[in-house]
From TrEMBL:
<keyword id="KW-0131">Cell cycle</keyword>
<keyword id="KW-0328">Glycosyltransferase</keyword>
<feature type="transmembrane region" description="Helical">
    <location>
        <begin position="78"/>
        <end position="95"/>
    </location>
</feature>
<keyword id="KW-0472">Membrane</keyword>
<comment type="similarity">
    <text>Belongs to the SEDS family. FtsW subfamily.</text>
</comment>
<dbReference type="InterPro" id="IPR001182">
    <property type="entry name" value="FtsW/RodA"/>
</dbReference>
<keyword id="KW-0133">Cell shape</keyword>
<feature type="transmembrane region" description="Helical">
    <location>
        <begin position="164"/>
        <end position="181"/>
    </location>
</feature>
<dbReference type="GO" id="GO:0005886">
    <property type="term" value="C:plasma membrane"/>
</dbReference>
<dbReference type="GO" id="GO:0009252">
    <property type="term" value="P:peptidoglycan biosynthetic process"/>
</dbReference>
<keyword id="KW-1003">Cell membrane</keyword>
<keyword id="KW-0132">Cell division</keyword>
<feature type="transmembrane region" description="Helical">
    <location>
        <begin position="340"/>
        <end position="361"/>
    </location>
</feature>
<feature type="transmembrane region" description="Helical">
    <location>
        <begin position="12"/>
        <end position="33"/>
    </location>
</feature>
<feature type="transmembrane region" description="Helical">
    <location>
        <begin position="304"/>
        <end position="328"/>
    </location>
</feature>
<protein>
    <recommendedName>
        <fullName>Probable peptidoglycan glycosyltransferase FtsW</fullName>
        <ecNumber>2.4.99.28</ecNumber>
    </recommendedName>
</protein>
<feature type="transmembrane region" description="Helical">
    <location>
        <begin position="53"/>
        <end position="71"/>
    </location>
</feature>
Length: 370
Protein backbone atom coordinates (compact mmCIF):
# COMPACT_ATOMS: atom_id res chain seq x y z
CA UNK A 1 0.00 0.00 0.00
CA UNK A 2 1.08 3.53 -0.64
CA UNK A 3 2.17 5.33 2.50
CA UNK A 4 0.00 8.27 3.48
CA UNK A 5 1.98 11.41 4.01
CA UNK A 6 1.26 12.85 7.48
CA UNK A 7 -0.94 15.92 7.41
CA UNK A 8 0.97 19.02 8.42
CA UNK A 9 -0.68 21.78 10.41
CA UNK A 10 0.47 25.21 11.57
CA UNK A 11 3.79 25.59 13.28
CA UNK A 12 3.96 26.91 16.84
CA UNK A 13 4.36 30.61 16.08
CA UNK A 14 5.17 31.32 19.73
CA UNK A 15 8.41 29.37 19.33
CA UNK A 16 9.08 30.73 15.85
CA UNK A 17 8.81 34.42 16.75
CA UNK A 18 10.57 33.98 20.09
CA UNK A 19 13.59 32.34 18.47
CA UNK A 20 13.61 34.93 15.70
CA UNK A 21 13.67 37.75 18.28
CA UNK A 22 16.45 36.05 20.27
CA UNK A 23 18.45 35.56 17.08
CA UNK A 24 18.04 39.21 16.07
CA UNK A 25 19.05 40.39 19.56
CA UNK A 26 22.00 38.01 19.40
CA UNK A 27 23.33 39.37 16.11
CA UNK A 28 23.05 42.98 17.34
CA UNK A 29 24.65 42.21 20.70
CA UNK A 30 27.47 40.15 19.18
CA UNK A 31 28.41 43.22 17.14
CA UNK A 32 28.06 45.56 20.11
CA UNK A 33 30.00 43.27 22.47
CA UNK A 34 32.72 42.28 19.99
CA UNK A 35 33.43 45.51 18.08
CA UNK A 36 36.29 46.71 20.31
CA UNK A 37 37.76 43.23 20.71
CA UNK A 38 37.49 42.60 16.95
CA UNK A 39 39.22 45.88 16.13
CA UNK A 40 42.07 45.00 18.48
CA UNK A 41 42.41 41.32 17.51
CA UNK A 42 41.22 41.24 13.88
CA UNK A 43 41.74 44.88 12.82
CA UNK A 44 38.10 44.94 11.71
CA UNK A 45 35.41 45.97 14.18
CA UNK A 46 32.79 44.04 12.16
CA UNK A 47 34.77 40.79 11.93
CA UNK A 48 32.60 38.81 14.34
CA UNK A 49 29.39 40.45 13.15
CA UNK A 50 30.05 39.28 9.58
CA UNK A 51 30.67 35.71 10.71
CA UNK A 52 27.68 35.64 13.07
CA UNK A 53 25.41 37.05 10.35
CA UNK A 54 26.47 34.25 7.99
CA UNK A 55 25.92 31.66 10.75
CA UNK A 56 22.48 33.15 11.40
CA UNK A 57 21.51 32.86 7.73
CA UNK A 58 22.75 29.24 7.59
CA UNK A 59 20.93 28.53 10.85
CA UNK A 60 17.67 29.98 9.52
CA UNK A 61 18.03 27.89 6.38
CA UNK A 62 18.57 24.77 8.50
CA UNK A 63 15.57 25.64 10.66
CA UNK A 64 13.24 26.15 7.68
CA UNK A 65 14.42 22.89 6.12
CA UNK A 66 13.91 20.84 9.28
CA UNK A 67 10.58 22.57 9.87
CA UNK A 68 9.33 20.95 6.67
CA UNK A 69 11.14 17.61 7.05
CA UNK A 70 9.00 15.01 8.81
CA UNK A 71 10.73 14.34 12.13
CA UNK A 72 9.86 10.64 11.90
CA UNK A 73 12.31 10.32 8.98
CA UNK A 74 15.18 11.43 11.22
CA UNK A 75 14.69 8.34 13.33
CA UNK A 76 16.27 6.04 10.73
CA UNK A 77 19.51 8.04 10.94
CA UNK A 78 19.89 7.59 14.70
CA UNK A 79 22.48 4.77 14.74
CA UNK A 80 24.42 6.27 11.83
CA UNK A 81 24.67 9.63 13.59
CA UNK A 82 25.73 7.96 16.84
CA UNK A 83 28.59 6.23 15.02
CA UNK A 84 29.62 9.35 13.10
CA UNK A 85 29.88 11.33 16.35
CA UNK A 86 32.60 9.04 17.73
CA UNK A 87 35.32 9.79 15.11
CA UNK A 88 34.29 13.47 15.14
CA UNK A 89 34.88 13.67 18.88
CA UNK A 90 38.16 11.76 18.63
CA UNK A 91 39.31 14.00 15.75
CA UNK A 92 39.37 17.03 18.06
CA UNK A 93 42.43 15.58 19.85
CA UNK A 94 44.47 15.94 16.63
CA UNK A 95 43.95 19.68 16.42
CA UNK A 96 45.68 22.42 18.35
CA UNK A 97 44.14 23.03 21.74
CA UNK A 98 42.70 26.35 22.84
CA UNK A 99 43.53 27.27 26.45
CA UNK A 100 44.19 23.60 27.19
CA UNK A 101 40.87 22.35 25.76
CA UNK A 102 40.60 20.24 22.58
CA UNK A 103 37.02 20.87 21.51
CA UNK A 104 37.24 22.00 17.90
CA UNK A 105 37.93 20.61 14.45
CA UNK A 106 39.60 23.43 12.53
CA UNK A 107 39.82 23.54 8.75
CA UNK A 108 41.34 26.83 7.69
CA UNK A 109 39.07 29.71 8.76
CA UNK A 110 36.26 27.27 9.62
CA UNK A 111 35.84 25.46 12.92
CA UNK A 112 33.32 22.95 14.20
CA UNK A 113 32.65 21.78 17.74
CA UNK A 114 31.38 18.16 17.53
CA UNK A 115 29.86 18.30 21.02
CA UNK A 116 27.29 20.78 19.65
CA UNK A 117 26.04 17.98 17.40
CA UNK A 118 26.49 15.18 19.93
CA UNK A 119 24.14 16.61 22.55
CA UNK A 120 21.27 16.57 20.04
CA UNK A 121 22.19 13.16 18.61
CA UNK A 122 22.03 11.73 22.15
CA UNK A 123 18.57 13.32 22.50
CA UNK A 124 17.50 11.71 19.20
CA UNK A 125 18.78 8.32 20.34
CA UNK A 126 17.04 8.52 23.71
CA UNK A 127 13.74 9.64 22.15
CA UNK A 128 13.85 6.86 19.55
CA UNK A 129 14.85 4.06 21.90
CA UNK A 130 12.72 5.04 24.91
CA UNK A 131 9.58 5.41 22.79
CA UNK A 132 10.19 1.94 21.38
CA UNK A 133 10.99 0.17 24.67
CA UNK A 134 8.00 1.51 26.61
CA UNK A 135 7.64 0.12 30.13
CA UNK A 136 11.21 -1.25 30.26
CA UNK A 137 12.33 2.13 31.57
CA UNK A 138 10.78 1.23 34.93
CA UNK A 139 13.42 -1.49 35.37
CA UNK A 140 16.65 -0.06 36.77
CA UNK A 141 19.17 -2.45 35.21
CA UNK A 142 17.43 -2.89 31.85
CA UNK A 143 15.70 0.47 31.49
CA UNK A 144 17.95 3.04 33.18
CA UNK A 145 21.54 1.79 33.29
CA UNK A 146 21.92 1.07 29.52
CA UNK A 147 20.89 4.63 28.63
CA UNK A 148 23.13 6.14 31.28
CA UNK A 149 26.03 4.08 29.92
CA UNK A 150 25.50 5.25 26.34
CA UNK A 151 25.03 8.90 27.32
CA UNK A 152 27.93 8.55 29.74
CA UNK A 153 30.15 7.18 26.97
CA UNK A 154 29.71 10.31 24.84
CA UNK A 155 29.85 12.58 27.88
CA UNK A 156 33.08 10.83 28.89
CA UNK A 157 34.80 11.57 25.58
CA UNK A 158 33.65 15.19 25.81
CA UNK A 159 35.00 15.30 29.37
CA UNK A 160 38.40 14.19 28.04
CA UNK A 161 38.26 17.24 25.76
CA UNK A 162 38.11 19.25 29.01
CA UNK A 163 34.51 20.23 28.39
CA UNK A 164 32.79 19.42 31.67
CA UNK A 165 29.89 21.79 30.92
CA UNK A 166 28.59 20.01 27.80
CA UNK A 167 29.20 16.60 29.40
CA UNK A 168 27.09 17.74 32.36
CA UNK A 169 24.33 19.03 30.06
CA UNK A 170 24.15 15.67 28.29
CA UNK A 171 23.73 13.81 31.57
CA UNK A 172 21.15 16.27 32.96
CA UNK A 173 19.07 16.06 29.77
CA UNK A 174 19.35 12.26 29.86
CA UNK A 175 17.91 12.30 33.38
CA UNK A 176 15.05 14.58 32.30
CA UNK A 177 14.15 12.35 29.36
CA UNK A 178 14.29 9.17 31.46
CA UNK A 179 11.96 10.79 33.97
CA UNK A 180 9.49 11.93 31.29
CA UNK A 181 9.62 8.46 29.71
CA UNK A 182 8.40 6.93 32.98
CA UNK A 183 11.54 6.13 34.95
CA UNK A 184 10.96 5.60 38.67
CA UNK A 185 11.74 8.54 40.95
CA UNK A 186 13.73 6.39 43.38
CA UNK A 187 15.95 5.04 40.58
CA UNK A 188 16.62 8.49 39.12
CA UNK A 189 16.77 10.69 42.20
CA UNK A 190 17.59 8.19 44.92
CA UNK A 191 20.36 6.29 43.14
CA UNK A 192 21.49 7.95 39.90
CA UNK A 193 21.46 11.62 40.96
CA UNK A 194 23.68 11.11 44.06
CA UNK A 195 26.06 9.00 41.93
CA UNK A 196 26.29 11.70 39.24
CA UNK A 197 26.82 14.43 41.84
CA UNK A 198 29.58 12.35 43.44
CA UNK A 199 31.23 11.79 40.04
CA UNK A 200 31.01 15.49 39.14
CA UNK A 201 32.48 16.44 42.53
CA UNK A 202 35.35 14.00 42.04
CA UNK A 203 36.24 15.36 38.58
CA UNK A 204 35.97 18.94 39.84
CA UNK A 205 38.04 18.51 42.98
CA UNK A 206 40.64 16.20 41.43
CA UNK A 207 41.54 18.65 38.65
CA UNK A 208 43.55 21.71 39.73
CA UNK A 209 42.01 24.26 37.34
CA UNK A 210 38.45 23.07 38.07
CA UNK A 211 39.14 23.13 41.79
CA UNK A 212 40.45 26.68 41.40
CA UNK A 213 37.23 27.66 39.62
CA UNK A 214 35.17 26.26 42.46
CA UNK A 215 37.15 28.15 45.09
CA UNK A 216 36.99 31.25 42.89
CA UNK A 217 33.20 30.96 42.73
CA UNK A 218 33.02 31.04 46.53
CA UNK A 219 35.06 34.25 46.73
CA UNK A 220 36.00 35.68 43.28
CA UNK A 221 37.28 38.92 44.81
CA UNK A 222 40.08 37.02 46.53
CA UNK A 223 41.61 36.20 43.14
CA UNK A 224 40.22 39.17 41.20
CA UNK A 225 43.46 39.48 39.22
CA UNK A 226 43.66 35.76 38.34
CA UNK A 227 40.98 33.04 38.43
CA UNK A 228 38.27 35.42 39.63
CA UNK A 229 39.01 38.09 37.02
CA UNK A 230 36.28 37.25 34.48
CA UNK A 231 33.53 36.87 37.07
CA UNK A 232 34.50 40.13 38.78
CA UNK A 233 34.39 41.95 35.44
CA UNK A 234 30.94 40.44 34.89
CA UNK A 235 29.80 41.89 38.23
CA UNK A 236 31.16 45.30 37.21
CA UNK A 237 29.25 45.13 33.92
CA UNK A 238 25.95 44.08 35.49
CA UNK A 239 26.30 46.67 38.26
CA UNK A 240 27.10 49.50 35.84
CA UNK A 241 24.03 48.74 33.75
CA UNK A 242 21.55 49.42 36.52
CA UNK A 243 17.87 49.34 35.56
CA UNK A 244 17.93 50.73 32.00
CA UNK A 245 21.57 50.23 30.98
CA UNK A 246 24.21 52.54 29.51
CA UNK A 247 22.88 52.14 25.97
CA UNK A 248 23.80 49.87 23.07
CA UNK A 249 27.48 50.20 22.18
CA UNK A 250 28.37 52.03 25.41
CA UNK A 251 29.73 49.13 27.46
CA UNK A 252 33.02 49.85 29.20
CA UNK A 253 33.83 46.27 30.19
CA UNK A 254 33.99 45.16 26.54
CA UNK A 255 36.97 47.44 25.96
CA UNK A 256 39.46 44.65 26.69
CA UNK A 257 38.46 44.32 30.36
CA UNK A 258 36.15 41.36 29.74
CA UNK A 259 37.96 38.56 27.82
CA UNK A 260 36.06 37.67 24.61
CA UNK A 261 32.88 39.49 25.71
CA UNK A 262 30.89 38.20 22.72
CA UNK A 263 31.10 34.57 23.87
CA UNK A 264 29.98 32.96 27.14
CA UNK A 265 29.73 36.24 29.07
CA UNK A 266 27.70 38.20 26.53
CA UNK A 267 24.79 38.30 29.00
CA UNK A 268 26.86 40.55 31.28
CA UNK A 269 27.42 42.99 28.39
CA UNK A 270 23.68 42.90 27.70
CA UNK A 271 23.16 43.77 31.36
CA UNK A 272 25.59 46.67 31.10
CA UNK A 273 24.15 48.11 27.89
CA UNK A 274 20.45 47.25 28.25
CA UNK A 275 20.26 47.02 32.02
CA UNK A 276 17.93 44.92 34.13
CA UNK A 277 15.14 45.64 31.64
CA UNK A 278 17.08 44.02 28.79
CA UNK A 279 18.10 41.02 30.90
CA UNK A 280 14.53 40.42 32.08
CA UNK A 281 13.25 40.69 28.50
CA UNK A 282 15.67 38.01 27.32
CA UNK A 283 14.82 35.74 30.25
CA UNK A 284 11.10 36.18 29.49
CA UNK A 285 11.71 35.20 25.85
CA UNK A 286 13.48 32.03 26.98
CA UNK A 287 10.67 31.24 29.42
CA UNK A 288 8.17 31.58 26.56
CA UNK A 289 10.31 29.26 24.44
CA UNK A 290 10.50 26.65 27.22
CA UNK A 291 6.76 26.89 27.96
CA UNK A 292 5.85 26.51 24.28
CA UNK A 293 8.37 23.69 23.89
CA UNK A 294 6.70 21.77 26.72
CA UNK A 295 3.29 22.39 25.10
CA UNK A 296 4.58 20.98 21.83
CA UNK A 297 5.79 17.89 23.70
CA UNK A 298 2.43 17.45 25.43
CA UNK A 299 0.51 17.80 22.17
CA UNK A 300 2.80 15.65 19.99
CA UNK A 301 1.06 12.90 18.05
CA UNK A 302 3.28 10.11 19.42
CA UNK A 303 5.69 9.33 22.24
CA UNK A 304 8.72 9.73 19.98
CA UNK A 305 7.65 13.30 19.23
CA UNK A 306 6.98 13.99 22.90
CA UNK A 307 10.40 12.78 24.03
CA UNK A 308 12.21 14.48 21.15
CA UNK A 309 10.51 17.81 21.90
CA UNK A 310 11.30 17.48 25.61
CA UNK A 311 14.93 16.68 24.82
CA UNK A 312 15.39 19.65 22.47
CA UNK A 313 13.67 22.04 24.87
CA UNK A 314 15.74 20.70 27.78
CA UNK A 315 19.06 21.19 25.99
CA UNK A 316 18.23 24.86 25.37
CA UNK A 317 16.75 25.38 28.85
CA UNK A 318 19.68 23.82 30.73
CA UNK A 319 22.19 25.89 28.75
CA UNK A 320 20.28 29.10 29.49
CA UNK A 321 20.07 28.31 33.22
CA UNK A 322 23.78 27.50 33.45
CA UNK A 323 24.89 30.51 31.41
CA UNK A 324 22.82 33.03 33.38
CA UNK A 325 23.84 31.38 36.68
CA UNK A 326 27.54 31.61 35.77
CA UNK A 327 27.37 35.23 34.63
CA UNK A 328 25.54 36.29 37.80
CA UNK A 329 27.92 34.35 40.05
CA UNK A 330 25.30 31.79 41.11
CA UNK A 331 27.50 28.83 40.17
CA UNK A 332 31.16 28.14 39.28
CA UNK A 333 32.41 29.56 35.98
CA UNK A 334 32.05 27.13 33.08
CA UNK A 335 32.00 27.56 29.33
CA UNK A 336 28.37 27.39 28.23
CA UNK A 337 27.21 29.85 25.53
CA UNK A 338 23.82 31.57 25.70
CA UNK A 339 21.70 29.88 22.98
CA UNK A 340 20.90 32.01 19.89
CA UNK A 341 22.79 34.99 21.36
CA UNK A 342 26.44 34.11 22.09
CA UNK A 343 28.90 34.15 19.20
CA UNK A 344 29.60 30.76 17.66
CA UNK A 345 28.85 29.04 14.37
CA UNK A 346 28.36 25.35 15.11
CA UNK A 347 26.35 25.99 18.29
CA UNK A 348 24.03 28.46 16.56
CA UNK A 349 23.43 26.28 13.49
CA UNK A 350 22.81 23.15 15.58
CA UNK A 351 20.42 25.01 17.88
CA UNK A 352 18.49 26.45 14.92
CA UNK A 353 18.30 23.04 13.27
CA UNK A 354 16.95 21.56 16.51
CA UNK A 355 14.34 24.32 16.69
CA UNK A 356 13.32 23.37 13.15
CA UNK A 357 12.69 19.80 14.34
CA UNK A 358 10.70 21.16 17.30
CA UNK A 359 8.57 23.25 14.94
CA UNK A 360 8.00 20.20 12.73
CA UNK A 361 6.75 18.27 15.76
CA UNK A 362 4.40 21.19 16.50
CA UNK A 363 2.92 20.82 13.02
CA UNK A 364 1.88 17.22 13.66
CA UNK A 365 -0.62 17.31 16.48
CA UNK A 366 -4.22 16.31 16.98
CA UNK A 367 -4.85 19.04 19.52
CA UNK A 368 -5.65 22.68 18.99
CA UNK A 369 -3.01 25.22 19.88
CA UNK A 370 -3.74 28.57 21.48
Amino acid sequence: MKKVKPKMGQIDYGIFYTVFLLLAIGVVMVYSASSYWAMFMEHDNMAYLKKQFVYAIIGLGAMFFMMRYDYHKIRKWTNTLLLICIPLLIATFFFKDAKGATRWIRLGPLSFQPSDLVKYVVVLFLASSLSRNGEKVKDFWKGIVPYLCISGFYAGIILLEKNLSIATIIMIVTMIMLFVAGGKKFHLFGIVTPALIAAASFFTLSTPYRRARLLNFIDPWKTADKEGYQLVQSFYALGAGGITGLGIGKSRQKTLYMPEPHNDFIFSIIGEELGLVGCVLIIILFIIFIFRGIRVAMNAKDEFGTLLAIGITSVIAVQVIINVAVVTGSMPVTGVPLPFISYGGSALVMNMMAVGVLLNISRQTNKKEF
